[in-house]
């Protein structure tokens, strides 16, 4: 087994252990850490009794002293004792998102980064001739802090009576939910930037190529046109990538018989392909080196006592007619994942796309 496969397996196992730990926290009433900075002994005993064969049980049963910076009693404190498990969950979420699959340029939040917008002037110069003089143009780019939030409401029974497979369900529900939302925001041409709230998609403001039809032949022709436009605008690109849905990738394989592409990704015409259902009705070509992004931790929180608007589009701000539900009364618990992440497109020419697509498999 390769080192990469071993690392992926370790992340998988630790992320499941993290969700099992959440179950034990819930079963014990979400207790804070003890005065010595250790996991509540009832949580440790519950975990040991229910998940004795867990590969990472010692991280809970013999938890180390927590760092002082995360010693709050409501949520982060209890997680600090099992930081390797929480970090594995973070890695699992990031690996599921398009952002984790593209070789983007990572930069810090709130730091001005110079981006080159034009090259210098270069020319042949004969003996005794005046040499051309030019300049390099740069524009400062700063990525502000933004965060994506996802809430999952689950029953107390689901957390308390966790059986084999339940932890995988909860882990995937949280991870895929956050990753899918961020991916859609990253790709959807309709997402315009909103200052101090969220970035625009990398495709926002880019004039799309209109699809020539809905058949496989049209798809092949359109992707060829897309790559032609993209490489005309980005002649020296080194981090090119194609983004498409698994169904479009499958159609492309069926139409061209290329051995390097599958519905889960690969490469097409020498260009790496990332597949995600979040790409929607677009096929995108992107110079990943021209997309700057900043990312922080994915924070986990939980509450069994909140009043919640059970609505994917809640009233903001709440009004007198807003309907809220008591999680305590209904026997529910809210699990929340917050991902601090933001990005910006350094230049418009770094992205080309086909939109809106309606390619029909089998045609």
Can you tell me about this structure?
This protein has 363 residues and is of the alpha+beta class. It has three domains: 3-96, no CATH class; 98-104 and 148-363, no CATH class; 105-142, no CATH class. It is 33% helix and 22% strand. It contains ten helices and 14 strands. It has helices spanning 3-27, 41-50, 58-61, 76-80, 83-96, 156-160, 166-187, 216-233, 246-256, 327-330; strands spanning 105-106, 112-118, 137-142, 147-155, 240-244, 261-262, 265-268, 271-275, 283-287, 291-303, 307-308, 325-326, 332-345, 351-354. A six-stranded mixed sheet has the order 6-7-8-5-9-14, covered by helices on one side. Strand 7 (265-268) and strand 8 form a beta hairpin. The protein is globular.
Strand order of the largest sheet: 6-7-8-5-9-14
Number of strands: 14
* Total domain modules: 3
- Overall mean pLDDT: 79
Distance between the termini: 40 Å
Q: Sheet bearing the most strands, described?
A: 6 strands, mixed
Shape: globular
Give the helices and strands as they follow along the chain: HHHHHEEEEHHHEHEEEEEEEHEE
Residues in β-strands, percent: 15-25%
Structural class: alpha+beta
Helix content: 25-40%
Tally of alpha and pi helices: 10
Computed over alpha carbons, the radius of gyration is 25 Å
Low-pLDDT parts are 64-81
């Amino acid at each position: 087994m390769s080192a990469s496969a071993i690392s992926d397996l370790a992340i998988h196992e630790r992320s499941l252990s993290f969700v099992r730990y959440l179950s034990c926290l819930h079963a014990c009433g979400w207790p804070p850490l003890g005065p010595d900075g250790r996991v509540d002994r009832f949580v440790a005993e519950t975990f040991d009794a229910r998940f004795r064969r867990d590969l990472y049980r010692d991280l809970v049963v013999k938890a180390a002293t927590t760092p002082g910076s995360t010693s709050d009693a409501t949520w982060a404190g209890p997680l600090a004792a099992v930081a390797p498990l929480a970090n594995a969950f973070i890695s699992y979420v990031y690996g599921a998102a398009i952002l984790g699959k593209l070789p983007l340029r990572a930069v810090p939040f709130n730091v001005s980064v110079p981006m080159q917008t034009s090259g210098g002037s270069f020319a042949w110069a004969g003996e005794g001739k005046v040499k051309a003089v030019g300049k390099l143009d740069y524009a400062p780019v700063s990525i502000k802090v933004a965060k994506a939030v996802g809430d999952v409401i689950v029953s107390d029974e689901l957390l308390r009576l966790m059986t084999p497979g339940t932890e995988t369900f909860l882990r995937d529900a949280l991870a895929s939910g956050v990753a899918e939302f961020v991916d859609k925001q990253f790709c959807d041409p309709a997402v315009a930037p909103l200052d101090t709230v969220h970035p625009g998609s990398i495709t926002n403001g880019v004039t799309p190529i209109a699809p020539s039809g809905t058949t496989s032949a049209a798809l092949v022709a359109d992707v060829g046109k897309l790559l032609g436009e993209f490489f005309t605008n980005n002649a020296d690109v080194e981090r090119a990538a194609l983004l498409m849905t698994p169904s479009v990738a499958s159609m492309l394989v069926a139409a061209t018989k290329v051995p390097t592409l599958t519905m889960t990704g690969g490469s097409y015409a020498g260009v790496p392909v990332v597949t995600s259902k979040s790409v929607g009705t677009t096929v995108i070509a992107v110079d990943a080196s021209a997309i700057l992004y900043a990312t922080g931790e994915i924070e986990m929180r939980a509450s069994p006592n909140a009043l919640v608007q059970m609505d994917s589009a809640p009233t903001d701000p709440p009004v007198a007619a807003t309907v809220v539900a008591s999680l305590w009364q209904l026997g529910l618990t809210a699990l929340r994942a917050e991902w601090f992440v933001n990005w910006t497109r350094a230049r418009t020419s770094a992205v080309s796309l086909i939109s809106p697509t309606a390619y029909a498999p089998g045609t």
